[in-house]
Every structure is written in C-alpha cells, then in structure tokens.
C-alpha cells in the first residue's frame, strides 16, 4: 500500500505527512508549490489565507481552488523560491 504524501502549510511552516524532509527537498516542483502557499500566507495574513482557502474550497473544491491553481502554476516558476530560506 502506498502512503500518500501530503504537505500542509501553516504560516511559514511546511508540515509533511508520509514524506521525509529529504524526499520533499529533492522535489523542486513540490517545493515551489508549497513556497507559493507560504507567499499566499504572507500576502493575505494567517487567518486571511485560511479563510480564503476554506471559502474557495467550499466554492470550487480542492483542484479548482484559486490558491491551488496558483500554486500549481508556481511549480514551473524558479523565482518563487527567491527569498525562501529552508531551515
Ligand atoms: Zn497546494
């Protein structure tokens, strides 16, 4: 059975489930995706992001959520990792 790899961003922290830190750091597209969510938090604020995300989820579901659409687009954008420091 394959355990699904999930990342969830809360503020500036990426929480990984079913994936190691090494696996995450070896997947540039995945890192860009989650970095985009961190920038969305910075733009909207902690509760602003969560409110928007939930409202979009109710309206459009997961895949068409505008915050997910933007994060998927960011997977092709090397610049999204600028100003992101991984500690
Ligand atoms: Zn996402």
Which percent bin holds the helix content? Answer: 40-55%
Radius of gyration: 13 Å
**Total helix count?**
4
Judging from the principal axes of the Cα atoms, what is the shape? globular
Query: Strand arrangement, largest sheet?
Result: 1-2
The total domain count is 1
Number of strands: 2
Characterize the main sheet. 2 strands, antiparallel
Gap from first CA to last CA = 31 Å
The molecules bound to the chains, other than polymers, are: zinc ion
Structural category is: mainly alpha
Mean pLDDT: 94
Give start-end ranges of low-pLDDT stretches: none
How are helices and strands ordered from N to C? Answer: EEHHHH
Walk me through this protein's architecture:
The chain has 87 residues and is mainly alpha-helical. It has one domain (6-81). Helix content is 53%, strand content 11%. It contains 4 helices and 2 strands. The chain has helices at residues 21-25, 28-44, 46-60, 66-74, and strands spanning 6-10, 13-17. Strands 1-2 form a two-stranded antiparallel ribbon. Strand 1 (6-10) and strand 2 (13-17) form a beta hairpin. Helix 2 crosses helix 3 and helix 2 (28-44) packs across helix 4 (66-74). The longest helix has 17 residues, at 28-44. The chain is globular. 17% of the residues are buried. The model has no long low-confidence stretch (mean pLDDT 94). The structure holds zinc ion (ZN).
